[in-house]
Amino acid sequence: MRVVTIALVLLVLAGCGGSESAAPPKPWFPKPAASKFRGIVVPQTKAPAIALHDAAGTPVTLASRRGHWTLVTFIYTHCPDVCPLIAANLNEALRELHAATTGVRVLAVSVDPKGDTPAAVRAYGKRMHLVPQFRYLIGTATQLHPVWALYHVAAQSPQTGLVSHVTYTVLIDPNGKERLIYDAQVTAAKVVHDLRVLMHARQTA
User: Fold this and answer.
1) CB within 8 A of 67, min separation 6: which ones?
2) How far apart are CA 1 and CA 4, in angstroms?
3) DSSP state of 169
4) What is the pLDDT of residues 148-183, one digit of tens each?
5) Per-residue pLDDT at 1
6) Backbone angles phi, psi at 44, to 5 degrees
7) Side-chain half-sphere CA neighbours of 39 within 13 A
8) DSSP tally for the chain: helices H, then strands E
9) What is the pLDDT, as a whole number, of residue 4?
């Protein structure tokens, strides 16, 4: 079921980092008319494993996030268009959700093993004013490719230096299950709304 759901999403999500002359296709999702969520509800299946490291070399795993809400996205530091917007919006969501106390985190997985060096990621974090709860995960091509495959993210690096890749963000619940997916137009308002609804439901269950 997860493969079918993700396949529907990826059919319409444009990669970022394309040429400026080529407008990315508008994303489309089979969104339920009566949904109370801003993101797209997906079957509650176990999220694929992630085991990488950050710019400081600290190991980071999705498994260690059990008990907390996690947003997983795929970006790269040299992206000229979509990725900075995604990073900024998710970063703002962390601020509004008081991530330091609520435990919400973003795991941003690199799609550019050559360009996303520790130095590039540290500079990106400073430039984007990323909060500590925004974890930028990097690795070698050998380390990153299995994660991309599990999340159905195809990343291609043409000679232009840009990376064409599928762009989406998935919200994973404290039990390690996928709950919602957002397209490239994800906003802080959408994420904050959905997480507040889900957190409240969990607290009152």
Assistant:
1) 103, 174
2) 5
3) E
4) 999 998 777 655 566 767 789 999 999 999 999 999
5) 44
6) -80, 75
7) 30
8) 6, 11
9) 41
Place of tokens 């999500």: 13
Name the architecture of domain 2-15+39-204: 3-Layer(aba) Sandwich (3.40)
Task: Count how many Cα atoms sit within 13 Å of the Cα of residue 200 in the half-sphere of its side chain.
Answer: 7
Q: Count the neighbouring beta carbons within 10 Å of the beta carbon of residue 22.
A: 8
35-76 pLDDT tens trace: 799 999 999 999 999 999 999 999 999 999 999 999 999 999
Say what the pLDDT of residue 11 is.
38
What's the CA gap between 29 and 9, in Å, rounded?
6
Instruction: Report residue 87 as tokens.
Output: 């990073």
CA dihedral sign, ordered 167, 173, 175, 177:
negative
Tokens, residue 68: 């907390």
- Are β-strands 40-41 and 134-137 bridged in parallel, bridged antiparallel, or unpaired? unpaired
96 touches 85 (CB < 8 A): no
* Interatomic CA distance for residues 29 and 35, integer angstroms: 13
The full set of domain ranges for the chain reads: 2-15+39-204
Which tokens hold the place of 126?
Answer: 């400073």
CB 140 within 8 A of CB 114: no
